[in-house]
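Work Package 3 (structural annotation) set out to generate three-dimensional models for the target panel prioritized at the project kickoff. During this period the team completed the workflow that converts sequence records into discrete structure tokens, so that structures can be stored uniformly alongside our sequence database. As a representative example, we reproduce one entry of 134 residues exactly as it appears in the project archive.
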Amino acid sequence: MAELSLFVWAFLAATIFPFSSEAAFFVALQNDMPLLNAMLSASIGNVLAIVLNYYLGYFLYIKTKKKLLSSHFGKKAYLFTHRYGYFTLLLSWLPIIGDPLTITAGLLRLKFVYFLLIAGSLRVLRYYFLAVMV
């Protein structure tokens, strides 16, 4: 049950909701969740959410672009991604700016395979480094 909670929390944290998956990850580890279970739950939830973000940008282009550009961070993320392309995905693991970058990747039609390799692996690595810090 704790794994499902962590999965949902990590999923929601990678969308536009202001949740902290890192805090949930730490709490899970502090409550003796096995490291592998915590890594899998948080990583799968977070990666699935960035896939959703990508496809929201890709398939709902006009609505998503309008909504994204109405936000300060969204506008910066859009302009930054438009200018630097795949290199912006190296920042997609960061709090606050990372999630808009995953949406703009879909808006700008970056290739999904490269998006998933870069952004997805960085999301998993983030949890790995958090686990090492504990």
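Residues 2-133 form one domain.
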